Amino acid sequence: MLWNIHVKNMALIQEVDVELSTGLNILTGETGAGKSIIIGAVNVALGAAGFKGFAREDAEYALVELIFSVENEKIRRRLEELEVPVEDGQVIISRKLAKGRTISKINGETVTVSRIREAAEVLLDIHGQHEHQSLLYRKNHLAIVDEYAKEELEPYAEKNEELYKRWQRQKRELSNMQTDENARAKEADFLRFEIEEIEAAALMEGEDESLEEQYRKMVNGRKIAEAAAEISALLSPDGGASEMTGRAIRSLSAVAELDGEISGLNDQLYDIDSLLNDFNRELSDYVERLSFDEEEFSRVETRLDLINHLKSKYGNAIPEILAYQEERQERLNVLENYEACLSKLQKELASCEAELFENAGKMSKIRKKYAFDLSVKIKEALEDLNFLDVQFEIAFEPLETPGILGIDEICFMISTNPGSPVKPLNEVASGGELSRIMLALKAVLADKDATETLIFDEIDVGISGRTAQKVSEKMAVLAKRHQVICITHLAQIASMADSHYVIEKKVENQVTFTSIQKLSEKESVEELARILGGAEITPTVLKSAREMKELAAQMKKS
Predict the structure, then answer these.
(1) Contact 62, 51 (CB under 8 A)
(2) What ranges in 179-220 are assigned the alpha helix state H?
(3) Separation in Å, CA 395 to CA 3, 51, 323, 431
């Protein structure tokens, strides 16, 4: 559940800290007070929106932080699968904008925005005031049914995706194979030329690196030889450092017995002389091996030229060239055994296609089973929301060929008037009806989903009176099983609040800012009176607000 929202330097908000509760959390306030900023800030924290248009330009940074309590074991396991740690039963998500750079964190660890979005899908569900328009698109109807049937459908959906991709790949391979005999002969000749060219080179892995090292050594052989000769002269026993060290040893040996400290220095000088002698021998051996062979240089250079030529045609490294050769050989085998390979591929394609149709058929049966159950529950939920004579059906239309999602096209059908036939949702539903249908869907799907927190941003658009009362009752029922956070303009919905918050715009020292505070029972009644009465709150309006609150309490108990 979402326990805390902390927002700093976002639009009209300087800093607010909201402690939320279980049950139904209601946020109300005057138009323009900043209610949309709160939902906007939550969307920013969850990676669904950016800071642009929200962050205050006069502040050094902007920050949004959400604290979730995770008690549901299913949610905990899903978060662990996403490698999102649950520490002390909590998940803390934060996003901060500072100096034009956004930093996203989960439990203090810097993460990508995509990681936050994945975690957000598990932790809560936000229904914005325009989301109900998504019900107008048929592709979303299939997604809703699949979500409802997810537990049984998911293995078949995963298999269908795998089969469909294999089927498409095999169709491409078959299409590529179906060429005329002359084209196949030309391609085979070209493949043989490439394969023979690579085979003739007799490449060995790592050979190019060894040759390049040899080549560098040969090219720089003269320079190395001159340096080695100079070093040898400086250190040689004939006038070089070795001779000087020998003289020093003889001089020091003559007095070594006269002083113990000099004896130690004498030993060190012997070591130096020994090291110099060893170095001179090794340097002499190296110079002897450094002889430059023109014929060997030409061989190395020619071999490197050949390898580099093959690299320019077939790959940037020897393993890539050899892999290319293997790939070309496989293609040549296909062309040389064309009829057999064609027959094999056709059989594999037919087998895959049959398996795809079979699996898609099983998916369709599962969908139809759950769609019937879903349509019954949606109809019941719509009746609870004051659709008195509603009919709701989920229509299936099979596709000619399976797609990645199976073989079904789904359409939500509805009739809201007695005697009228059901028609596609996008042809009959008004904006207010769409918002109630979406609420009905959320309520039905919430029973299947482990998501603990549901956020509704002004779902009351286009409704009033008895319908508003029905929506408020549905919200209260939903809040018994989930934490619900709702922004509303309607007193009927606000009266159902288990926790009521008011969002206000204030001016201090000629600075406008938004504040949020939790209301007491008395303050909640006064806020309901403001919603009911507008500018002037009379005793009669206050009495009506108090009665509304009492009736809501009775309804929730029942």
Answers:
(1) yes
(2) 181-201, 207-219
(3) 41, 42, 52, 22
pLDDT in tens, 56-78: 877 888 899 999 998 888 888 88
Structure tokens at 263: 């004896």
b/e 404-423 (16+ beta carbons within 10 angstroms → b): ebbbbbbbbbbbbeeeeebe
How many other CB atoms are found less than 10 A from the CB of residue 37?
19
How many CA atoms are closer than 13 Å to the CA of 52, on its beta-carbon side?
A: 3
Residues 473, 385: Cα–Cα separation, whole Å: 8
Residues comprising the chain, all counted: 558
The whole-number pLDDT of residue 323 equals 92
> Quick one: which of 102, 8, 4, 6 has its CA closest to 49?
102
Residue 219 CB coordination number (10 Å):
12
Hunting for tokens 């051996």 — which residue is that? Answer: 285
3-state DSSP call for residue 70? Answer: coil
Rg (CA), the chain: 40
- Residue 315 gets the label, from left (phi > 0), alpha (psi -120 to 50) or beta, of left
Closest by alpha carbon to 382, among 421, 410, 411, 415? 415
Q: Using an 8 Å Cβ cutoff, are 4 and 20 in contact?
A: yes
Determine the Cα–Cα distance for residues 41 and 39; give it in Å rounded to an integer. Answer: 5
Separation of alpha carbons 219 and 498, rounded Å: 85
Q: Where are the beta strands (DSSP E) in 350-498?
A: 391-403, 406-415, 423-424, 453-457, 483-487
CA separation for the pair 406, 398 (Å, rounded) = 9
Q: How far apart are CA 257 and CA 206, in angstroms?
A: 59
Q: SS3 of 416, please?
A: coil
CA dihedral angle for residue 480, residue 481, residue 486, residue 492, rounded to 10 degrees: -30
CA-closest candidate to residue 460, choices 483, 487, 481: 487
Note the pTM of the prediction, 2 decimals: 0.63
- How high is the pLDDT of residue 80? 87
CA distance 275 to 298: 38
Pairing of strands 483-487, 453-457: parallel
CB 109 within 8 A of CB 82: no
Distance set, CA 328 to CA 196, 197, 474 (Å): 11, 12, 66
Give the count of alpha carbons within 13 A of 175, CB side only: 6
Give the pLDDT of residue 275.
Answer: 84
Q: Nearest 5°: CA angle at 270, between 265 and 275?
A: 125
Pairing of strands 24-28, 61-69: unpaired
pLDDT tens, position by position, 310-344: 999 998 999 999 999 998 888 788 777 777 777 88
Positions of the chain with pLDDT lower than 70, given as ranges: 128-134, 178-181, 222, 239, 260, 290-292, 431-432, 447-450, 458, 534-535
